Amino acid sequence: MITIIESGTDKTCNAPETGGSQNADIHGKAIQTCCDKLLEGLDPILKEEKDWKKAVMKAFHQKVSLQASEHIRRLCINEITQGKNVDAHFDNGKNSGVLARLPLVIPIIHAVPDFLPNPFMFFRIERRQYGIPEDSPTYHTSGAACVLLEIDCRTGEHKLLSVDIVLDVGRSLNPAIDIGQIEGAFMQCYGNMTCEELTWDKNGKLVQDSLYKYKIPTPAMTPRRFRVKLLKESNTFAEQVYSSKGVGEPPLMLGVTTFSSLRYAITARRQDLGLSDFIEISAPLTASKIVSLCNP
After folding, report:
1. Which residues participate in catalysis according to the annotation?
2. Could you tell me the pTM of the whole model?
3. Where is this region: Disordered (predicted)?
4. Tens digit of pLDDT for each residue in 219-232?
5. Which of 20, 131, 231, 272 has a CA that sits 20 to 30 A from residue 209's CA?
6. Taking Cα atoms as reference points, which of 116, 69, 117, 75 lies closest to residue 94?
7. Cross-strand partners of 227
8. Which CATH number fits domain 142-294: 3.30.365.10, 3.40.50.2300, 3.40.50.300, 3.90.980.10?
């Protein structure tokens, strides 16, 4: 049984955040490694005693360690850009990770490549074993989205009718959480593309200086048909946590499809009016922008 406690400096000093798609990749890898250590010590006893509770009690009486800790090192930016090898000491200014208890701390160290697209998802992976170049990321997360929407050319309002998404997350650790993450990321980008506008007055003061003025996505903007599927056939690697992939930021970019769809709708409206000149269409496409573009 694994007990998960809340994050805090009284449990782990300099604990990293859980964002950046690193929760499963970094924290999960530390948990997985700790479990492997515990099983390594319990394995001889489990061969003789099949009952789990009795085996653990027997290990306790034999003074077999029933606790483990692991430090998964997260590389800092200057180490990555300079392509330096990493020292094996623990430096509070350069390291963060998951640390259970103090008796055993084993940093996982790797020679840093000259270029690394996402430093916060990087830990030791035997790249050569899987034919991965040393200067490439461990994996890529990709997906596709198809949206259907309609606009009212008189008011500039639009309605997102349906969204279909397929995303490669490897072998999902928890499909319900991953699908919820994908839906939330899509809606966040949808807001960025359509309603979250920042403008300044002639004195340089921000106009949208309150939540009343800064328009964020609401439940009413959620499409009536919102279907998300996780790709079944995935090109992933066994050294990931159960062959999973991070699903933090990747689905965010799929929300750009709403901007593209609005752009096509506006272009079609202008063609109906006999207008074919080039126009610059920039996000966010608010109702006022859509009205002015559809009715020049």
Report:
1. 249
2. 0.71
3. 1-24
4. 999 999 999 999 88
5. 20
6. 75
7. 164
8. 3.30.365.10
